[in-house]
Target: Sidoreflexin
Amino acid sequence: MAVNGFDIDAHRWDQSTFIGRLKHFANITDWRTALLPDSRLDEAKALVDSCRAGSVPPGTTVEQLHYAKKLYDSAFHPDTGERMNLIGRMSFQVPGGMAITGGMLQFYRTVPAVVFWQWVNQSFNALVNYTNRNAASPITTNQIGVAYLTATSTALATAVGLNLYTKKAPPLLARWVPFAAVASANCVNIPMMRQQELLNGIAVTDENGNKLGHSKKAAVKGITQVVISRVTMAAPGMIILPIIMQRLEKYKFMQRITFLHGPLQVMMVGGFLVFMVPAACSLFPQQCSMAVSKLEPELRESILSRYRGTVQYVYFNKGL
Model:
């Protein structure tokens, strides 16, 4: 199919519906794109830039442009256009998340193991949160350090405290401790890593992309949605898988292959994440909206005076 006036930034699927967003995020969080070399990603970016400039190479098909945009969206930041670090990309959530979550679920019995795996997980989360922040709100090295230490301390305190508390509790409760730690840490890690947005506001625009100002209320809405998405992403694997493992471990064949329990959990977590990463990202639109009437009084009055009520909603990138 030949290219003729192709709009490469137009969404292939309706972003106003969950199914449309699910197809979109299943496309750009495809873990296979994380295996591609930087040179291939740079080629995709060059093709996307060429298409935006209206100079698509002769012979390029729509399918090739769609694939180039998929690679671009999976590896380059939507605000800066810069290539994101590999570990922080959403396309790396499946391989990275399955290894770390599998470790947390397998090694939950001793305090040293709990401390190690929660530290690894929060280090991973901090990098993901920083990579997928709204880049229009810069954060200093000191703030990154405080966010990392605070989230790690929260996760460790929750995990170690509950680990000790559940020593005499039913075994299944002990298996759920990692999820409690992950959920509580996400409630700290993400807001702390994006504290500049909460302190100074997030950039908001009209539907045409014209900047209208900065809003703290918009930042609260966007970050809250990201926290909900991240907890949802982890929940099925970390809640359902312990139930499955507890039942499997009663069988004799499972008792004979205890050395395979860890790899088995890693693979099963991967199965959950293949579906949950795009599903969780799809819960809310990435290009978030907010009614002008719900903004801070100063910003609301500024927009009303400048646009005479013609602008009813503002838009902003909530991040992932």
Summary: The first helix runs from residue 18 to 28. The CA atoms of residues 141 and 303 lie 34 Å apart. The chain has a mean pLDDT of 85.
